[in-house]
Amino acid sequence: MNRLSGAYEIEIVLSRSAQLRIGSLGMCRLPRGRYVYVGSARGGLEPRVGRHLRLAETKRGGGRWHVDALLRLPQARIAAVRLYPGRDECDLSREVAARPGATVPIPRFGAMDCRGGCQAHLYRMRNAECGMRNNVKD
Predict the structure, then answer these.
(1) HEC states along 57-92?
(2) What residues form DSSP beta bridges with 103?
(3) pLDDT 10s digits, 7-54
(4) Is the model's pLDDT at 128 over the cut of 80?
(5) How far, in Å, CA of 37 to CA of 115, rounded?
(6) Which terminus of the chain has a lower count of CB atoms within 10 Å, N or C?
(7) Average pLDDT for 95-99
(8) Are 16 and 75 spatial neighbours (Cβ–Cβ below 8 Å)?
(9) What pLDDT, on a 0 to 100 scale, did the predictor assign at position 138?
(10) pLDDT of residue 134
């Protein structure tokens, strides 16, 4: 199994608005739409992303990361994944934040321990494409 470390982005589609509890952030509301979550994995990108894919499919388990609460929602599905071996999560997050139409729906989501000054690691994307090309998963 490939144990490359680095960063990844997951495009998540919410088919309808949702309210969810996000750890110490409390109850949060997300409108329906497209989102990009940026994460990292030091112990292997493929196992980490595989965990997210399984959680999104089964809607069971998780609870460790903020994104788990989002992926467990019945109206959430993963539309695409992109791996960035060797990349820094915060650098990638800043790139996503700079994409046209990107906004921060929940400040500090996925970035509670961020040392890079990121507002969040989850972005709502108002453009249909989300800026993702060459996707690993469609």
Answers:
(1) HHCCCCCCCHHHHHHCCCCEEEEEEEEEECCCHHHH
(2) 124
(3) 999 999 999 999 999 888 899 999 999 999 999 999 899 999 999 999
(4) no
(5) 17
(6) N
(7) 96
(8) yes
(9) 32
(10) 41
C-beta separation of 36 from 7 below 8 A: no
Take residue 30 and report the two structure tokens written for it.
């997300």
d(Cα 117, Cα 54) in Å, to the nearest integer? 30
Give the C-alpha distances (Å, rounded to integers) separating 117 from 6, 94, 114.
18, 9, 6
Half-sphere exposure of 59 (CA within 13 A, CB side): 6
**Alpha helices (runs of H) in the chain, residue ranges in sequence order:** 45-58, 66-71, 89-97
Q: For residue 52, give both structure tokens.
A: 């997210």
Both structure tokens of 78: 């993963």
Contact 110, 89 (CB under 8 A): no
Query: What global pTM score does this model have?
Result: 0.89
